[in-house]
Design goal:
- By secondary structure, this protein is of the alpha/beta class.
- It contains 14 helices and 15 strands.
- Strands 2-3-4-5-6-8-11-12 form an eight-stranded parallel beta barrel, surrounded by seven helices. A three-stranded mixed β-sheet has the order 7-9-10, with helices on one face. It has a two-stranded antiparallel sheet with strand order 1-15.
- The chain has a single domain (3-391), classed as TIM Barrel (Alpha-Beta Barrel).
- The protein starts with a strand and ends with a strand.
Length: 400
Amino acid sequence: MTQTSTPFPDGFLWGASTAGHQIEGNNVNSDWWRREHDPAANIHEPSLDACDSYHRWAQDMDLLAQLGFTDYRFGIEWARIEPERGFFSRAELAHYRSMVEGARARGLRPMVTLHHFTVPRWFEDLGGWTADGAVEAFIRYVEACAPVIADGVGHVCTINEPNVLAISAAADRTGEPAWPSTGGAITPDEKTTHALVAAHHGAVAAVRRINPAIRVGWTVASQVYQALPGAEEATAAYSRPREDVFIEAARGDDFIGVQSYTRTRIGNNGPVRAPEDVERTLTGWEYYPGAVGYALRHTAEVIGDGTALIVTENGIATADDTRRVDYYAGALEAVAAAMEDGINVEGYLAWSALDNYEWGSYRPTFGLIAVDPVTFARAAKPSAIWLGGLGRSRELPRGA
């Protein structure tokens, strides 16, 4: 007999997430657009029109609201707002402001991400995050976003997954793969780490100047480092530069976004590849729904009291939507268990609202909503109906 419980209280954020470059299309002034069209970068396929959400955002929001979601996390693109250094587009600011107003009109609380992996070409040409004046340039961009976020935006994410950005910077410098087949990562670039922390702290202050009522934080990618027997010290040492320093940098923020998909097991010599016979997703990651529970517990332990936790990304790349439902069911069990143990979790946002561009390929389908690549027609998957329904009932099926 299946039982239900209601672990998610009134006001709990229940939504789905997207990123601007991955869904909008034709983000031509960004570093990623340039990379996608550089043969030397060896990108499988370019983003091109993506999901055409730049023009079809209202359709996306209509679907999410109809499905039962109450929150929508979306990104705004720095390369659109400031396509040339010091020149800010009033039209693009108005476009993103229309999205905020459109979300609220549909009963969706908007969570706005200011930086989700992409930067303007001019910023990359200056030398990126470690260049002179880079942090100040980002803070000026955040200040310029005041017309978008000043009214009606409850949550702002400054920078998405800064630990991934710092790891990618190290990979670009050394030529090593950022995410080797073991599932681990090379050590983040230290200068990039310091710059991102400084940029985040400056952005938090800027957002609070715009409107002190906005709840502001950043999101950290949790690789869920799990120690094999005897490797506890090695695991702690491995986690610290890749994750913990970024969690610690969020102390004093209103929230920290926890983003989790799978786990990484650590031995005394580093990451250990999962056995060949485990179930894997379309990204090659181990199918492991409980990862988000471990991520929440580790984040809470590192950050301590005073900063709320929100799951800002969690999901699975699969062509089998029944496995997506099973994954979300297991993940939500883990979230509920963490909350029952006293961890302050204020929301859960799935990745992703749409099947979208996954940084080089459209093959990994994370979406709750399918998108036809030719007509751009949207179709809610059964997993979207199931997960959205939980947003209405807040009743989680538990046990059998």
